[in-house]
Each structure stands twice: as structure tokens, then as C-alpha cells.
Amino acid sequence: MPPLEARGNKKLELDFEQQLNALILFHLDEHVSGSHLLQILEEDALARQIVEVPHGIAKSTFFEAINTRGLEQLSYLFDALYKSAGDVLPKEHGKLGELVGIDGSLIDATLSMYWADYRKNDRKAKVHLAFDLNRSIPRKIDLSDGKAGERPFAMEILSDGQTGVMDRGYQCHKNFDLWQNQNKYFLCRIQDKTEKTIVREDEVPPNSMFFFDGLVLLGIPGKNRSEKPLRLVGYKIAGKTYWIATNRFDLSADQIATIYKLRWEIEKFFAWWKRHLRVYHLIARSRYGLMVQILSGLITYLLLAIFCHEQYREKVSIRRVRQLRIKIQREARYIDKVDPGFQDVKEHMILHAKT
Description:
With 355 residues, the protein is an alpha+beta fold. The protein has helices at residues 16-28, 34-43, 45-51, 59-68, 71-88, 151-157, 173-181, 253-262, 264-276, 287-312, 318-338, 345-354; strands at 99-108, 117-119, 122-132, 137-145, 163-166, 185-189, 196-201, 210-218, 230-237, 240-246. The chain has two domains: 16-72 and 285-354, no CATH class; 95-275, Transposase Inhibitor Protein From Tn5, Chain A, domain 1 (Alpha-Beta Complex), CATH 3.90.350. The chain contains twelve helices and ten strands. α1 (16-28) crosses α10 and α2 packs across α3 (45-51).
């Protein structure tokens, strides 16, 4: 990992490991603000033990660290943890290939966050996420203002052989052509009203939900029509029509529909992440600081994913997170009872573990 170095000759008051531990504790233990976290570190001996700050963290030190350093180290750690999780977690849909869900989510920002442009008198930032659909874990992250388009991120995120799974907001016929030229695969729902020029129509299973499977050109000739033919699968579920454009010719229509259904895993992740890990309770206002907060939240989730699989052979669940929180609270009460002055806490913890 790149070393975290102090600027000038002054020694770091908060090293990277302490900064990371504090941020993981923030996400894991239901703190609602940076100030709340700092108060816990001041009053709770176990919290100080976890973060390894015997005397807590000064407010100025904490917020200066969040907004100015640690991002390079967090990015490195996130990539390394994703690889570790990839080695540990099973691939649930491996036969369908490397599936990467791509989506964005808006974060409510304060009016003072001028970089988070969205609309007049309203500020929002946008998280762009690539999600490993085989292992149900995040794999890439980017941050922009709320008005930024989502398609450029999708162009950058895919590697050779991967299949990007996207909703209608990512429909771009030029990108479809480029991905085919670059040996990158995609599976994208398109607008119902999209102009379709049929090159070849294949048979679909009788009495099934599928009504179309064939080779098409998308868009209006001379305006936005794709140059390379691609596969289009049409089907209906519960009265709703889906048109899925893809260059995966190796899959059945059923498998195409299954992969698009998996895209909802990223929506579920965003909802769970926001609700249970306090990711969007802002403790930073700068773009840099917000990225630090978000990356530390993703690192917390990856650690949970590895922990839940190795300990219980389960996916991340709020039940297991609550167990961890209860354990932290129980140990905090024990330390306060045995040694409220926080003297020789490590020795007490070792004794407590043995008994």
C-alpha cells in the first residue's frame, strides 16, 4: 500500500490505520454524524480500543484527515479486498460469465457543496457503481456531481470478456458498436419506442413469455442507428414489456431474461447500504472527503461479506450486523464495569475472552 505521509516535518496525529478503523466503526455501529463518532471515541473505552486511539480524536484532526488524505490508500485497499473476496466467495452464476451490474445513485448534498451541481437551489452528488453480480459485492466506484451522465462511466468500467448489465439510462447505440469492436459484452434494456430494423428473426419458444428474438439494427438511419447488428430479445412479465439488447449470442432467451433480472441485485445493495451502514449520513462536504467516506463504506461491506461467508456460509445480512453491534455494546458495558478509567484495557479484554 502507498504509505500515508505527513506534510512537512510534523508527525501525523492520526495514521491511516486509525483513520480506517474510525470510519469502519462509523459505518458498522450506527453513528449518525462525525461528531457523534468523536463523542463515542471520547466516552467509550472499547471504541478507543478498536480504533487504537487511547485519548480519542480531536475534532480538527479527524475532519482534516477525512478531507485531505487517505484516498489513495483506501482505493488500494478496496481493490485488494475485492480480489480477496473474489477468491473466497462462490460465483453463483458462473456459467453465465463475468456479470457486472452498472448503475448510479444520487446522494443528497448540502447547499454549501457547490461542486455537487444538480439544479437551482438543490445539490446532489452521484455515485457510479460497478457491482459483481456473481458474488453480490461492489467492484468499482466513481463519484460525480448529480448532473453528470452515466454512460461515460459505463464505457470506462468494462474489461475484455465481461458483460455489463444495465438499465435504459445507459442505452447508447454508439457505445454498443464500440463494445462489440472491443470484445466487451453488454446486456441493456432499451426504450420501447426505439426504432428497430430487423436483420433476422429467430424462432421463440411457443406459449412462452418471449415474443421476439433476433438480429437488429437500432435507431434511425442517418441519425443514431447502430452500425453493427446486435441481438434483441423481447418478452413480457406481469404485463410489462422488456426489450433487451445484447451481443451475447451464446445464451438462450431464458438466460438473457435471468441476467437482466439479476440487475436488481445492485438496487437491493444500494438500498441496504444506505439504510444499514449509514453511508449517506454525510461526515464530509468536499468531493475528496465524500469519496473517502464512500470508499470506507464499501470496504466495510467487503469485510462483512468475507466475514459472513467464512463464519456462517451466508451473504451479508442485517441479522449478522446486529450481532456484531450487540457484541460491541456488550463488551463496552463489560469494560465500563471492570475499568471505567480505561486502565489496562487490553489485559481486561484478554481475561474476558478467556473466561
